[in-house]
Design goal:
By secondary structure, the chain is α+β, with helices and mostly antiparallel strands. Helices cover 19% and strands 44% of the residues. The chain has one domain. Strands 1, 2, 3, 4, 5, 6, 7, 8, 9, 10, 11, 12, 13 and 14 form a 14-stranded antiparallel beta sheet that branches. Strand 13 and strand 14 form a beta hairpin.
Length: 245
Amino acid sequence: MKPTLVACWLALSTAACSGAADIPETPDLRELLSSYERPTASLDVTSVVDALSSVPQLKEIAAGIQAAAYVMDNVSYASRTSSAKGGERVRLQGSLGLKVLCPGDRSDPKYDESVNGSLSITLAVAENRIRRSMRGHANACIRQGTVRDFPVRIKLDGDVAFDVGGDIGIGQPWSGELLAFLPGELSVGEYVFRSVSGRLHEGRIQYLAQTDRGSLVFELSEQGITIRDASGVWFCAEGESCTKQ
């Protein structure tokens, strides 16, 4: 068992069983995903600067979303474990429940739920595949992240929902794509965010912001910040003017 995974409980049936296990209901995040794919706001040279200044804690939000993705290593682990237990010719369906211990300080992790909390998640399994969306709950889950090259304490508390972009075959790893919706509370250092979402796409963190002009998608990179609006992409390097790509 992985040290971070305190429990993995299965309610699975095989195709040969007379009574099939129930497949749990999964969250529908298609509308939110569509908002990331098709932002509605239209910017110009002036309004793009205003848009950038409207999200001053973008790096903190990105660190929080990255911390929430911590659970996905355990999803991949559960997938491999279920494959080993089921065998190649067994068709599985039902649910997988995971309870993941949170580490707290990165340099001195303590996998103790009473100290650093936990994150529980339920996976729906149908025809040997983990369905792409899943829901769970964070119980004061604490991790250490990095913002502007400094360590920062991150705490996730409340309900969570994830979409991984496609079903995961039993025995297969997570693809790296993730849409996270956190209707609870996300604390990153001194900042507290409520009901936020974020997307890990092609290795970069995206954040969907609602403005008085409509929705915008912000993406962090080592070179600067990309802002995607309804008509295209703007690039904003630190200390320089934003330009339309």
